[in-house]
Amino acid sequence: MRYAFELGMRGLLRHPRTMGLAVATLAMGLAATMTMLTLLSMLSADPLPGLSQHLYLGWVDSRQAPAAGARAADDVGAPPRLLKLADVQAIADAQPDIRQTALVPTSLTLEGEDARRESVRALLATGPLPSMFGVPLLHGRSWTEQEARDRAPVAIIDARTSLRLFGRADGTGQLLRVGQGQVRVVGISAEWNPQPGFYALQESDSGWGEALAIRAFLPLDSALAIGVTPISAQDCDRGGAGGFRFNELDLGACRFLQLWAELPTPQAVDGFRAALERYARQRHDTGAFERPPQAQLYSVRAWLTANRVVPDSVRLNLWLSLGLLSLCMVNVAGLLAARFLRRGGELGVRRVLGASRRTVVVQCLVEAGAAGLAGGLLALPLTLFGLWVVRLQDRGYTEQAVLHPGLYAGLLSLAVAVGLLVGLLPAWRAARIEPALQVKSL
């Protein structure tokens, strides 16, 4: 067997042009597939590892009944997700043992004491959002339950915003002007930008990109108390279809909050879902909810799938690259078959001298596997080039196209497997050569 392995390795150096063509063909197919697999794996990655499996988005149907002959905006496109402030407060009061946060993303202009200004993307939230979503605090602390209940004017900003506003990374204790009032910075966070931004998907963005990084976190009630109006998607009862509204928020009529709950066990998931359904039925029975009772609970993964966060074009390109790889494999199999059959005399002599068909197959598979490994190694620079081209396209999610060393190790194993696969049939045909006929032809 060792001798067969050595013969297989030596076979690589014979007929270098056909071997070079086989390796280059395989490398192109592998590079195209590696590029799209890398992008898809990055887009499908867990946005909050260690936390997201316990986070669930809850929703009850509090929308008005659609007018006759018309379809409400939320009946099409992305699944509905927004709730009114009164509903999230009622659900939280009914389940006090469940950690919950209702949040809304918005744009804010922060102004420091020396009139430095910074426009940032912020999250206004109820409940313990920083700890539930793993916001990494560098200095200070988060807001307390008492501060949230008392509408204390406090905020958390990230280190970059602190540096721009105060000239130092640790700006805890400083005052910021926000809206019509001031807030005190109680915590400094590192950059927090889970990709995709599952916590606040809106119609206007895809959930991908550096521009979605959250730079400030404020308790919702405190922000509303100082005149901050969330600039985000709203769905208002008397305002028609939802959309972005500026300087206008009717708390009694507008749905603008996503409700997230931390549910660590299947029993907690079932209990919270039952609570949502019970709340929807109660409100419908009282006439507050016009539509039939409906409640939904999404895990993070289910929520991303429902919103089709991974673009269809990525999946389509992956299928196209797999088709190209299949075509390359067929051509490489033909090249290897030609190489093996061309050496029929050599293989026939080996068979006459006592070599078994098994050793002939091993010899050919070693050669084919080595060709696959060479194709995989050559595919690395081609894959890096392909990912660079993908990143040149400014589509938000293309920033994620970075090759991970662990992923490449897996893809290199795939290259060897592809080499063995395409070499299997030619090796089998070479082993079936009749030794007597080949020896006569010498």
Oligomer status: single chain
Supply the helix-strand structural class.
alpha+beta
What proportion strand?
Answer: 15-25%
- So what's the overall shape? elongated
Description of the structure:
This protein has 442 residues and is α+β, with helices and mostly antiparallel strands. It contains 14 helices and 13 strands. Strands 1, 2, 3, 4, 5, 6, 7, 8, 12 and 13 form a ten-stranded mixed β-sheet that branches. A three-stranded antiparallel β-sheet has the order 10-9-11, with no helix packed on it. A hairpin with a 6-residue loop joins strand 9 (233-236) and strand 10 (243-244). The radius of gyration is 31 Å and the shape is elongated. The model has no long low-confidence stretch (mean pLDDT 82).
Task: Give the gist of this structure.
The chain is of the alpha+beta class. The protein is 47% helix and 16% strand. Strand 6 and strand 7 form a beta hairpin.
Write the SSE topology.
Blueprint: H1 2-11, H2 16-43, E1 55-60, H3 85-94, E2 100-111, E3 117-125, H4 129-132, E4 137-140, H5 145-149, E5 154-158, H6 159-166, E6 175-178, E7 181-189, E8 216-219, H7 220-225, E9 233-236, E10 243-244, E11 254-255, E12 258-262, H8 266-285, E13 295-299, H9 300-306, H10 312-342, H11 344-352, H12 357-392, H13 405-431, H14 435-440
Parallel strand pairs: 3-8, 5-7
Antiparallel strand pairs: 1-12, 1-13, 2-3, 2-12, 4-7, 5-8, 6-7, 9-10, 9-11
Helix pairs in contact: 1-12, 2-10, 2-12, 2-13, 10-13, 12-13
